[in-house]
Amino acid sequence: MEIIEIIFGIVLLVFSVAIIIVVLLQEGSQKNIGVVTGGADTFLSKNRARSANAFLTRWTKFIAIGFVIFVIAINIIMFFSQGVITAE
Question: Model pTM greater than 0.90?
Fold first, then answer.
């Protein structure tokens, strides 16, 4: 393995772990689940959760788009660096 492949693999691993962490930190979208478990929502807790969820949702989108663009870029770089296109 070349050093560039190792670097690309590490960056993809970081993107993957970041997506997993950000998605797991988000709250569920089920309504009124707090009433069942005994956790009544107050006005302040609703606004705090909404802003945190908005932040995590925004970062999920950014990380996922960066992941897809990076994977496409890696495939293009590897395709042209191996000399797959030949004049046979």
Answer: no
